[in-house]
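hiii so my PI (J.) wants the whole complex modelled not just the main chain, which honestly fair. so below is everything: two entries, each one labled with what it is. i double checked the lines twice but i was tired so who knows lol
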Amino acid sequence: DGGITQSPKYLFRKEGQNVTLSCEQNLNHDAMYWYRQDPGQGLRLIYYSQIVNDFQKGDIAEGYSVSREKKESFPLTVTSAQKNPTAFYLCASSIGETLNQPQHFGDGTRLSIL
Amino acid sequence: QQPVQSPQAVILREGEDAVINCSSSKALYSVHWYRQKHGEAPVFLMILLKGGEQKGHEKISASFNEKKQQSSLYLTASQLSYSGTYFCGVASGTYKYIFGTGTRLKVLA
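here's the output for the full assembly
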C-alpha cells in the first residue's frame, strides 16, 4: 500500500545538536510539506517542496533546513539554532497544487529535548 | 493570517448534530477539512472548491460561502468515532497552505 513513512517515531535532542527527521513517500506525489504542531495547537508550515531540487520556506522556517534530492524523500533537519524544538512534526504530500488536492500525512515524529 | 474556527470545543451525545465554522480574512479559493485523533496524523475529510464542487469520501457535508470567506462542516447523527480535532485548511498560494485554529469535538455515548 502507498503511503508516507516518517521515522523515528520519537526523537530526543541534546542541547547544541542537529537532528534529522526522515520522510519517505511512495505515492508518486510531486509536492511534500513539513508541519510543526505544538500541544493543543494547529499545524504550522515549516517548509514545502513542489518538485525535486526545489523548496520554499513556510511560516516558521527559522532553525530548520530541508533537502529534496529525490522525489520520494524530504528530510527535515532541526538545527541547534531552533531553541524550542519540542513538538510533533508531521510530513505530508500531495499530487499537485494544494488548491484542489488533499494532503496525505505521515504518522509524525515527536521530538523532545533531553 | 490563520483561519479562525468556531466553536473551539464542543461536546455531543451520540446521534446529535454539530456545525464547525471556519472563517478566513483572505479570499478563499478552496477549503479543506481534516480530522485528527490525539497523537495521530490528520485525516482528509473533504475539499470544497470555488464554484461549489466538493470532493470527499465520508458521510459528512460542508458548505463554502465565497463572499463571506467562510466554510462550515456539518456532522449529522454523530458517532463515537467522530471524536477528534477538526481543522480547516486554506490555500494561500498554489502550494502554500494554512491550517485553522482547530475545533475539539467529543462525542459521548
